[in-house]
Amino acid sequence: MTADSRRAVVLSSGGIDSTTAMAMAVSQGFSVFSLTFDYGQRHRHELSAARAVARHLNAEKHLVLETDFRKIGGSALTADIPVPGTGPVENTIPVTYVPARNTIFLAYALAWAETLDAADIFIGVNAVDYSGYPDCRPEYIEAFARVANLGSKAGVEGRITFAVHTPLIHMTKAEIIRTGAALGVDYSITSSCYDPSPEGLACGLCDSCRIRKKGFVDAGLPDPTRYV
Amino acid sequence: MTADSRRAVVLSSGGIDSTTAMAMAVSQGFSVFSLTFDYGQRHRHELSAARAVARHLNAEKHLVLETDFRKIGGSALTADIPVPGTGPVENTIPVTYVPARNTIFLAYALAWAETLDAADIFIGVNAVDYSGYPDCRPEYIEAFARVANLGSKAGVEGRITFAVHTPLIHMTKAEIIRTGAALGVDYSITSSCYDPSPEGLACGLCDSCRIRKKGFVDAGLPDPTRYV
């Protein structure tokens, strides 16, 4: 069996970035396997958004893996630390940073990719508007790709050369939104808010909402987000 | 806050290798945080063995994380593929290989280490009697350490330089057993079998049992394992 060049695992959070990355994978001819994590995040609404996105973009399969970061702790997204909602968007690593989150997500994506005989993994990380997360930088992604090829049966046997695609890594939020809109993405079904209402309405105040809002303004496109 | 040089996260399966690695961490003065995965493995007995080992070696804490590899599939240890039990121990990558298992385990260990402000991670991988797993080789471990330092807040901020310790990597099984025995490890509480009886007795036939048996013979020490 050789690598099926048409299959790609796409990490999806139901937000703007991963949704755009998925639309780009589709536009490149990949059959998409959407992978989402239920990690006890406060913003549960992103799980239903991710499901809606997988349907919207005709993903071949949508897999939700449970992984309980709360047992480990250390982040405002999963532990009992207040989510920051006021003040300027900081350039330092924020308290919403979850230790090793992308490493854990990419490790599972690799496991699924190897099982599917897929060489390609898409992750919507961004080094421009990336909120200061260290695991969104090109050198980190390159290091992970090395791990993927050295630590997998398919990689070592030379059957698959895994590639971690980061099509958004050098884009601004406005460029991401324009790219997705041009590919027909309906951003009204995506969710970015760190602290949505029980009905899933965005708070409009958290770092993620503010970056999103500014992105639509900068892109010159109407913001379809439903705010409280 | 600076890294607590006395804390180490030790990956534990309740088997001979990880137990010996844990005993070595203790002998080096580390306060041990034992990390075990409940990944739907057939050999559930290893979960109670890991708990017993953590108690035996006075671990500071023992954390069991659930992660369902069965949803991903692709291995005889978690899927419906027969476990091989006859024939010579093969030098190729066996069907018991779980895609990206060590990458997933190390990613969680990194998350916990960063939360604990611990720089040190111990993993009992072995490149001699390693059953052909690609993610037990030194170059793979080095690649992961690079991911750890590039992809974590503590690493990027220069607060912690993460180290992945593989004290067993160049030891034979006999050397591992002699080392642990010299450190006072009671191997009767450990579990290696891929296909134990419901009471937790080892099958004596699977690759893992055969490597274990041979290890005690080669070490010139009595094998305390309870076989069916």
From TrEMBL, chains A, B:
Residues reported to bind ATP = 12-22
Report the EC number(s), separated by commas if there are several. Answer: 6.3.4.20
Q: Which residues does UniProt call coiled coil?
A: none
Q: What does this protein's record comment on cofactor binding?
A: Binds 1 zinc ion per subunit.
Catalysis performed (reactions): 7-carboxy-7-carbaguanine + NH4(+) + 2 ATP = 7-cyano-7-carbaguanine + 2 AMP + 2 diphosphate + 2 H(+)
Matching InterPro entries: QueC, Rossmann-like_a/b/a_fold
Provide the GO MF annotations for this entry: ATP binding; ligase activity, forming carbon-nitrogen bonds; zinc ion binding
Binding of Zn(2+), residues = 193, 203, 206, 209
Q: Does the keyword Hydrolase apply?
A: no
**Statement: the UniProt record of this protein carries the keyword Protein biosynthesis:** no
Keywords on this record? ATP-binding, Ligase, Metal-binding, Nucleotide-binding, Queuosine biosynthesis, Zinc
* The protein's annotated pathway: Purine metabolism; 7-cyano-7-deazaguanine biosynthesis
Look up the record and name the cofactor or cofactors this protein needs: Zn(2+)
Among the Pfam families in the record, one is QueC
A Gene Ontology biological process in which this protein takes part is: tRNA queuosine(34) biosynthetic process
What family, per the record? Belongs to the QueC family.
The protein's job, in short, is: Catalyzes the ATP-dependent conversion of 7-carboxy-7-deazaguanine (CDG) to 7-cyano-7-deazaguanine (preQ(0)).
Q: What is this protein called?
A: 7-cyano-7-deazaguanine synthase
* UniProt gene name: queC
